[in-house]
Design brief:
Helices cover 31% and strands 25% of the residues. The chain binds flavin-adenine dinucleotide and nicotinamide-adenine-dinucleotide. Belongs to the class-I pyridine nucleotide-disulfide oxidoreductase family.
């Protein structure tokens, strides 16, 4: 080590929600850690993803829920104050200032270096700081790459040249665009179309294939499609966009179903791994690819390198990145102490839930809350299963929640073991129901025991009872 080099037990590349948690866990475990961040401490979730997008959606959701209750609806006499909603969004992002998160990092005893980090061989990282200087960091035990992901711009002719919005612009725009084209009908496309249409834009959503939210139960995409159309969004399924151009101030997309014009286009077509400029080639890996990791988040073929969060492509959700961070952090600490790390499913060192029980919520109206396997995934996995479905609107709690409540619950039951493989709820306000399902799936609670988990009356949770009764037949 030269004088200019600094050594830490653990180096963490990227101070998003994942990297922050890896660093925190290893420091709590008695190791020293340094976080390297090239942009804002807190990463996408805080500034350009979860928090601003949910803030953009929440006002419209509250208004919709009030309008769905006779009596209360009479009080909704005005329109949403869009400027105030955008101000509230700006508050959640701390006006894109990370001072609060930096304070947390310092308070947690984690060192912070600002700059662009690149691996430079085993356990060695070179950071290029904003003034162009280089700092060399070496790790005694481990390096965790938590550099996340960015919007993937699909190979559509001319798309990169029309300066499309990515989710960054889609969540941080200072005003609603007049006409917004949304390319992609997955999580981002459905949420952002729901948000901006209700904040004054005229949205056209273009999605290839025959449904929205294709990775979820078909009922989810159907309900969100109906609600987007009711809001006035022009949804075009079966539209594979293959060319883009600017025509004066307009952006024009062409696809298999015609030509579409707007003032802006939001690309919501999936993510790409931030591994293209992180020096992974210096340790024998291919830049641009997701990091291939085992269940303790250790990069295959190494003993010191970890890939945690969006960068491994396993489950690109903030809560799953933080879960992986807790598991990887525990594994790093144990290995540093020379302890054996148990790689069996559900051990304290592995992220088994990535495969078996990933929960997610799409914050559209209705919401889609899902955990574990869909029916199609259970079939693909060759698991013996039965699908049980029930309309949530028939439950007393739902009828009280909103007049004419409409929703669906779907449970996928493993018929050999009589446990739940997956559950999906589609309806207003179902996000908070999801954790009950996650506990049932992770705990592999037998159906016979779930009968004793009595939901309170009159809550939407009574849907559990209806699902169990339907399964029993
Ligand atoms: C519009 C949108 C809405 C979303 N909403 C939700 C939601 O509601 N709930 C949910 O669970 N998930 C949501 N997600 C997904 C969620 O944002 C991600 O899963 C999460 O942010 C990933 O965290 P991460 O720390 O792994 O990566 P990031 O948050 O991407 O953090 C990586 C960090 O590494 C830094 N970095 C990259 N390269 C380098 C380098 N070479 N040197 C130094 N630093 C580097 C980056 O600047 C960044 O700060 C949403 C995503 C989008 C796009
Ligand atoms: N609420 C949440 O938890 C939340 C919200 C937003 C994002 N996220 C995370 O971010 C990830 C990325 O979201 P996303 O919506 O960008 O990706 P996605 O994979 O969910 O959806 C992208 C969609 O774009 C379509 N598409 C791609 N190229 C196309 C083309 N040329 N023409 C027409 N359609 C095309 C695909 O068919 C796909 O359905 C999600 O998978 C999720 O992990 C989570």
């Amino acid at each position: 080590m030269t004088d200019a080099e600094q050594s830490y037990d653990v180096i963490v590349l990227g101070a998003g929600s994942t990297g922050e948690n890896v660093a925190d866990i290893v420091v709590r475990g008695g190791l020293s850690a340094v976080l390297v961040e090239s942009e804002l401490v807190g990463g996408e979730c805080s500034y350009w993803a979860c928090m601003p997008s949910k803030a953009l959606l929440r006002g419209s959701e509250v208004l919709g829920q009030a309008r769905a209750v006779a009596g209360a609806a009479a009080a909704v006499t005005g329109e949403q104050d869009v400027a105030a909603t955008l101000d509230r969004r700006d508050g959640f992002t701390s006006h894109w200032d990370d001072a609060g998160q930096v304070e947390w990092v310092e308070g947690a005893g984690i060192a912070l270096v600002r700059g662009h980090a690149r691996l430079a061989g085993e356990k060695r990282v070179v950071v290029t700081t904003d003034d162009g200087a280089e700092r060399v960091l070496t790790a005694r035990y481990a390096v965790a790459v938590c550099t996340g992901s960015r919007a993937a711009v699909p190979p559509v002719d001319g798309l990169a040249d029309v300066r499309p919005w990515t989710p960054r612009e889609g969540t941080s725009a200072k005003e609603a665009p007049g006409r917004l084209l949304v390319l992609g009908g997955g999580y981002v496309g459905c949420e952002m179309a729901t948000a901006w249409q209700q904040l004054g834009a005229q949205v056209t959503l273009l999605q290839r294939g025959d449904r929205l939210l294709p990775h979820l139960e078909p009922a989810a995409g159907e309900a969100v499609l109906a609600s987007l159309r009711e809001l006035g969004v022009d949804v075009r399924l079966g539209t594979d966009v293959d060319a883009a151009r600017r025509d004066g101030d307009e952006v024009v997309l062409s696809g298999s179903t015609g030509e579409f014009r707007g003032d802006e286009v939001l690309v919501a077509a999936g993510r790409a791994a931030n591994t293209d400029d992180v020096g992974v080639d210096t340790v024998g890996l291919t830049p641009g690819e997701y990091l291939d990791v085992d269940d303790s988040l250790q990069v295959s073929g190494t003993t010191w390198l970890y890939g945690v969060g969006d960068v491994n492509g396993r489950a690109q959700l903030t809560h799953m990145g933080k879960y992986q961070a807790r598991q990887a952090g525990a594994a790093i600490v144990a290995r540093a102490r020379g302890e054996q790390v148990d790689l069996a499913d559900w051990s304290p060192f592995v992220a088994t839930a990535d495969h078996r029980a990933t929960p997610s919520v799409v914050f559209t109206s209705p919401q889609v809350a899902a955990v574990g396997l869909t029916a199609a995934q259970a079939a693909d996995a060759g698991l013996p299963h039965r699908v049980v479905e029930y309309p949530i609107g028939s439950v007393a709690g739902a009828a009280v929640f909103a007049d004419g409540y409409s929703g669906t619950a779907i449970a996928v039951v493993d018929t050999d073991r009589e446990v739940l493989l997956g559950v999906t709820f589609v309806g207003e306000g179902v996000a908070e129901l999801l954790h009950s399902a996650t506990i049932a799936v992770v705990g592999e609670v037998p159906i016979s025991r779930l009968w004793h988990a009595v939901p309170s009356y009159p809550t939407i949770s009574e849907i559990w009872l209806r699902l169990l009764e339907t399964y029993r037949g």
